[in-house]
Amino acid sequence: MAPTRGYTLTWLGHGTFHLVTRDGRVVLLDPWVEGNPACPNEHKSFEKIDVITISHGHGDHMADAVTLGLKFKPTIVCNYEIHLFLQKKGVTTTSPMNKGGTQEAGGVRFTMVHAVHSSGIEDGGQVTYGGEPCGFVVTLEDGTRIYHAGDTGVHSDMALIGEIYRPDVALLPIGDHFTMSPREAAYAARMLGARVIVPAHHGTFPVLSGTPDALKAELKTLGVAAEVVPLRPGEALS
Ligand code: NI
Ligand code: MN
C-alpha cells in the first residue's frame, strides 16, 4: 500500500474501508470483512485497530464489530442504540454519539452526519432497533476530510455537508437497489463538492449493479468536475 498525502485509504470491498493516518492510527470504517465476499483474504486480518466507525446496524456494515471490538479494543464510534447493542455483547470500548456532533478518537475527528436508510440489527432471528443510520466526516491530523456516506439515498443535507465540512474525498455508495445509483450519486457529488469520489457498495452482489463508469458519465452530464477514482477491493487510493 503506497502512502497518499500522509494517509492510506484502502477499499476492502462493499462499504468497508481501512484507513491508516499519517500518525499511524488505524481506522476501520464499517467492519465487514470475514463474510464479505468482495474482501480479499489477505485483508481480513489486522495487526491493530485503533478506531472502528459504524454507519448503521445492517450486518454488511457491522458483522465483525463484536469480534474485532473484543480482540483489538478499538474506540467504536457509533450511534447510541448500536452502542447499547455492543455493550450487551460484552464490547466495552464503544463511544456513542449522535448526528451533528463531533468527537476525537486516536487523534482523528469524527463528525456524525445524516443518512437516508434504515438501521435494524438482525440478531438471533430478531430485529433489534439500531437507531438512525448515519455517515461520517473524518478529519485527519493534517485537516484532510474524508466523507464516508454509509448506505444512503441522495438527500439535500449533502449540500450542508459540502458547505460546512468541505470534504476532500467522498466515499459514496453507487450500487443502486439498497442505496443511491450512479445517477443520484452524481447529484450527491455536485452538492458535496469533493475533488475525489471513491465509489463503494457496488459489485458485491449482482443486484448492486451501479458502476464507476456510469457515475463518470452522469457527472459529465451534470458538468461536475469531480474525479472518480474506482478502486478494486484491496486497492488503496493513490
Ligand atoms: Ni444497509
Ligand atoms: Mn449495505
From TrEMBL:
InterPro entries: Metallo-B-lactamas (IPR001279), RibonucZ/Hydroxyglut_hydro (IPR036866), UPF0173 (IPR022877), UPF0173_UPF0282_UlaG_hydrolase (IPR050114). The keyword Hydrolase applies. SMART domains: Lactamase_B. It comes from the Bacteria. Pfam families: Lactamase_B_2 (PF12706). GO terms for molecular function: hydrolase activity. Residues 14-201 form the Metallo-beta-lactamase domain. Gene3D superfamilies: Ribonuclease Z/Hydroxyacylglutathione hydrolase-like (3.60.15.10). Keywords: Hydrolase. Belongs to the UPF0173 family. This is UPF0173 metal-dependent hydrolase E6K78_08495.
